[in-house]
Amino acid sequence: MADNTTAIEQFGVHLMIDGYDADPVRLADPCLLEALLRDLPDHMGMHRISEVVVVEVGPKNRKDPGGISGFVMIAESHFSLHTFPARRFITLDIYTCQNSLDTAAITAQLASALGLTDMDVFVQPRGLRYPSENHPGIPSALAIGSPPSCPVNSRLKGADTDTQPLSKLSAMR
User: Alpha carbon 38 to chain centroid distance?
Assistant: First the structure.
């Protein structure tokens, strides 16, 4: 009789931080936020696989007075942030396939960089039943090959057209 059990392990960790009473000037500084998203993965021994994207977003509704959103892909997953300077509030996500993070060091660095005085920190293990081996007969993503390339200027139907990368906004001013 064949053994149909598959060994499992944890896939990674998702660190979510809600920061309160942050310095609104720092939260509105796209250069500071870009540097944070560029440097923090390096300090954590992670590997950036994309350029940092930082976008100014105007007010959308009562709950969203506008701010800056940023993102960087890392080989281990991603970092993202959303600032709301008028509310002195920031949300950050660090998702990694590593099984642990030095949350004390990360929160201390963020508090210093952003002038945070209060944080809610959530650490969620992810992929608690992640198979420890590939399924037989299914090639890895790299063996499958790259998908066809998409047009550079393609947009999803209904995409928000008033949101632009900062590089495009700067060129328009």
Answer: 11
